[in-house]
Amino acid sequence: MTKNHLMTSAKNTSSKVPCAPRKVMSPASRLETEARQLLRGAGAYLIAALLFGFSAPAFAGLAEPTPTVPPKTVVEKKPEPNPLCFLDGKLCLDVQERFRFEARDNTFDFNSTVDSLTDDAFFLNRFRLGIAIKPVDWLKFYAQGQDSEEFDSDRPDIPGTMGAEGDNNFDLRQAYIQLGKKLVNGTLGRQTLAYGDERLIGIGEWNNFTRTFDAAKLHYENEKGKFSVDLFASTVVYIINDSFDYSDLFNGAKTHRDQVFSGIYASTTAVNPLTMDFYALLLDEDNPSLVVPGITYPGTSLSVPGTRTDFVTLGARIKADPKKLHGWEYEGEFAFQGGQVSNLDLTAFAVHIGGGYNFDSPWTPRLFLEYNFASGDDNATDGDIETFQNLFPSNHPRYGIMDLFSWQNLQNLAASFRVKPSKQISVQVDYNAFWLANTNDAWYRANGTTRVRPITPGAPNYVGSEIDLIGNYQPFKFLSFQVGYSHFISGAYVRATGPDNNANFGYVQALVNF
């Protein structure tokens, strides 16, 4: 019997698109079908191929004895000149081209009996071109354009629809002026914001669009570089198909959201061997009745039209340098939130702790263990909310490369093992186990807003586990390749709330960066 071609239900995506029958199978469709079939059983083959392919050069090198080399005088190398800089560095260009093939199976509906439009194989392309003008050492102008495209996918090419990267023709990604030297400066305009491990504020580089803000930022650091602090006020940029990407700052009359995301972020290395960060972040916005199509990055798990959101996030982060601890490393981040989300009183918190060891041996193995927790709401009708708000993070690959989870209503245990057969090659295997912190709250995807399943109080809270395999190869400074495979094993929560088939995801990516 031929499968019915259905779209993923509204429970798996925040946008509803009318169902449409598939077209007559074309060569591209056959490629998609074959890729998905291969993906379902690709785990063992991909692991074997990666380990063989990546280890062969290293074994070949180990076959020959290492000759004795007399000690050499260490000479500090000067930074390599940028081939795209001119006029003694006063004019510099930057170029990036990224191409990725993805294949997904059951990553939205966990239902093998339905051939959903999200069970697909497709291509993503991203091109960037930037120019920096620095006439003097205290003045810099920068502008960067970006073109993002999704090819040969069954889902609509509309950003955010059914999880689509979609199309966003060449648009303005960054445009700012920076005044001041390295130690004290101010940046005004469209720019990126990224702090710490990007668990709360990040660029989202895995995404085909990434994230920018229209912002004003002040930066200070002392001469020894042991202390720095940033103060910023910003509003996130909307990604909109076939339209100029704008923020509330420059088009508030259209969005009526009036979002302001501001904060202070301080960092110090005064206590050896730690980097310690301290921050206070404030998100204030209206929740308008007008919904702007596209990826809007609301920063909250709940946006009820006609309500207001206004809350603060207070946090601290520590990270130890393994080079100063004979290979040992540890880290932690702790955040508390209070205020209101869509007129509901907010009290929430999140924790990340991790530690590991870097072995001083061939292939430089690294073993790392971590635990992540983010609170969830215990009652959707009591007038308050305990769901931790993930703000504007880079969640890939923090909680698995399949991007099924965010840092909210979550308990996560993870183990990671990485080896580097050579300077150009690395292979990493990750294992993640996931539970919901509270089954009275939703399971949120990596974007922090899309609910994978409807809230089911009383259901078991074990969602499942994910095994990831990632290989990297960088033959040149400007060229890198990455291949990844992920397998998700459904747990008791998935079985209790709907279809419970396992899911698979694979990709191959090439990046050229000058």
Could you provide a short overview of the structure?
The protein is mainly beta and 514 residues long. Helix content is 10%, strand content 44%.
Defining traits:
514 residues, Porin, disordered N terminus, 4 helices, single chain, globular, 44% strand, mainly beta
Write up this protein.
- The protein has 514 residues and is mainly β.
- Helices cover 10% and strands 44% of the residues.
- It is built from four helices and 20 strands.
- The protein has helices spanning 27-40, 42-62, 248-255, 492-497, and strands spanning 85-86, 91-105, 121-136, 139-151, 168-180, 184-191, 213-221, 227-236, 260-268, 274-287, 307-320, 328-341, 344-358, 366-374, 384-385, 410-422, 425-435, 462-476, 479-490, 503-513.
- It has an 18-stranded antiparallel barrel.
Largest sheet: 18 strands, antiparallel, barrel
As a whole number of angstroms, the C-alpha radius of gyration is 24 Å
Strand content: 35-45%
Quote the distance from N terminus to C terminus.
Answer: 51 Å
Write down how many β-strands occur, each being a DSSP E stretch of 2 or more residues: 20
How does the helix and strand content classify structurally?
Answer: mainly beta
Categorize the overall geometry. Answer: globular
CATH topology: Porin
CATH class value: Mainly Beta
Note poorly predicted spans. Answer: 1-24, 42-67
Order of helices and strands: HHEEEEEEEEHEEEEEEEEEEEHE
Under the CATH scheme, the architecture is Beta Barrel
**How many separate structural domains?**
1
Portion of residues in helices?
A: under 10%
**How would you state the average pLDDT, rounded?**
85
Question: Helix tally?
Answer: 4
